[in-house]
Structures are given as C-alpha cells and as structure tokens.
Amino acid sequence: MNSDFVTVTLPASHSYLQFITEAFIQLIKSKVLLRDRESGFKYISDSKILIHELYTNAINHSGSDSVTFNFSFEDSYIDIQMITHGPGFIVKPVDLKNKANKTQYLPPYPKKIHGTEFMVHSDMDYEVACRVKDEKSLEFVKRKRAPEKDYEIPEHFGLLIITNLCSDVSFVSNQDGRNIFSLKRTTLT
To answer: How many domains does the chain have?
Structure first.
C-alpha cells in the first residue's frame, strides 16, 4: 500500500456520526488489504467502534464547532489525527483516599505535574494511564490491571476503547487553540 492522506472536516454534530463512520469504513475497504473475511469483518467492526468513540467524544467534550480527521494510510498502520478547537483535554487525577477530590488540570498543564502519571480509567481487567509530558501534551496507555488493586475508576471508558484498538495514543494542545488526538491503528496486512 502506498502512503495516502485524506482529510475530512465535519460540524461537531451527532447528525454526522453515521457519515463519518461509513466514510472511514469505505476508506479502509479501499486502502487496506484485509487478510480474510473473518478477520476483515472484525477489523471493520472495531474500526466503526473506534471512529464512533472518537467523534462522539469530540462532540460531547471538546466544545468545538467542527471536527477534522486526518487519515494517513501507511503500509502497516493507519495514522489518525482528530483535531478540535476548545479548552483541551481535562486531566482529572483520582485520589483513591479522597474520592471527593475534584482537582482538574487543563492545558497548559502546570509544571508540577509534568512527568506525572494519573490513572484515568480502571475496571476489573484494565487500567488506562495518562502521562503528562509537558504543558501541552499527554500520552495514554492501556495495561492489564494488577490483581491486588481493588478500585475502579469509571470515567474515561472511551479511552479504554481507544487504547484497546490503537497504539501510540496521544494528545497535544497547540498554541493556535487546536487540540489534536493522534493514534495509530495497525492494519491486517
């Protein structure tokens, strides 16, 4: 597969959810070599969930009037950028001793939390950690939950879905007010 780049900009409205989902699936069908019918069906089904979750989160949480998707189709992965305008990703550290803690951080993230990792979702099987890289950027990683941990964090379930379906999930808030979620989705070649 040759590198190919597609950009789609839509109003931030639920009425375009089916459109962006179907457009992404058509792009996959035309750009990605799917191994066989069964694995291809699963890949497409998971891709629908992914784009649905990304776009729904943008509509519900970004405060942006529009959502732009950049899709770059490479040999072994799809690089996806979702761009919105708004305040940025709110980091809500969970204090397990003080559940009433309502501390929240917006970009620019304060220097005192740079390099810090916060749990943003935890269920019986997995947890999603958010690492604050600097004043404008975050990385998200999913990992198997340690069996001795007995807490659950129900927030940011969408990040569990996204980190389960993709690798290299990150967020950057640019100087010009653009917020960019970047992720890679491995292809089945």
So the answer is: 1
Q: Which residue range(s) make up the domain with 44? A: 4-85
Q: How far is CA 89 from the centre of its chain?
A: 11
Label residues 25-40 b or e (16+ Cβ within 10 Å = b).
eebbeebbebeeeeeb
What confidence tens digit (pLDDT) does each residue in 172-182 have? 999 888 999 99
CB 156 within 8 A of CB 121: yes
- Say if 123 falls within a structural domain: no
CATH of the domain at 20: 3.30.565.10
> What are the tens digits of pLDDT across the range 20-71?
999 999 999 998 888 788 888 999 999 999 999 999 999 999 999 999 999 9
Residues 186, 165: Cα–Cα separation, whole Å = 9
- Rounded (5°) CA angle 79-138-155: 100
Tell me whether residue 117 is in a domain: no
